[in-house]
């Protein structure tokens, strides 16, 4: 699915520039500067209430900034039309409700933008062979094709999360933003989600995932640590996951140890 022909720039980062966003009347994001690259896995971390979900929604254009702006490919998000924006950016919300009585393939097909309730309809666009191919590809890349005829209600939690991922990927977004995608999954399924996301990143997708588990987050390319609506640290995992930063953000003393090419965060308490 191509962007509109009048779209001047087709690639580049997703950025927050001096972003201030309210959640209700609460100033949840207070002057955030951040840059997320295509082909990179970024994780947003921070304690409960730090503003992670609010930031993600602002990056998607789902809430309006009080000040500052979000830019996609160097162009203010506010200047993008809604269909353009929803093609470029996909969202996996925190507790994604998939319709239980719907077959997997039909759920994934919704990701083509022909009826996604969150972003509205793309009126009058007929279903094409390209749509069919994109659905096939998303099913194949998430290993959901073998149960494409089953109903969502017949799937395990891990399988459902893969279907939600397939639906998001079917729209061929440039950036995928996920809010705690591994939350209700056991370790094996959580690692599986990370593996699927890694493959997509290798193919050029920009992934921005809110992650609670710091040991999972340490597998990302870059981390953004939020605290009380501000960026406490940003950069490579070894730069962000330091005992000083984690004490400041979470109020917990930790040791950070390197194990082969991984970082492990171990609470001292
Ligand atoms: N609708 C709302 N009204 C008032 N405060 C809110 C609302 N939604 C969120 N908040 C507050 O905004 C802050 C950031 O929330 P959120 O972005 O959900 O944080 P996180 O995802 O990091 O846990 C929290 O302190 C939360 O209590
Ligand atoms: Mg949240």
UniProtKB/TrEMBL annotation:
Residues 14-253 form the ABC transporter domain. SUPFAM superfamilies: P-loop containing nucleoside triphosphate hydrolases. SMART domains: AAA (SM00382). InterPro entries: AAA+_ATPase, ABC_transporter-like_ATP-bd, ABC_transporter-like_CS, P-loop_NTPase. GO terms for molecular function: ATP binding. Signal peptide: none annotated. The keyword Chloroplast does not apply. Keywords: ATP-binding, Nucleotide-binding, Translocase, Transport. This is Iron ABC transporter ATP-binding protein. The lineage of its organism: Bacteria, Thermotogati, Deinococcota, Deinococci, Deinococcales.
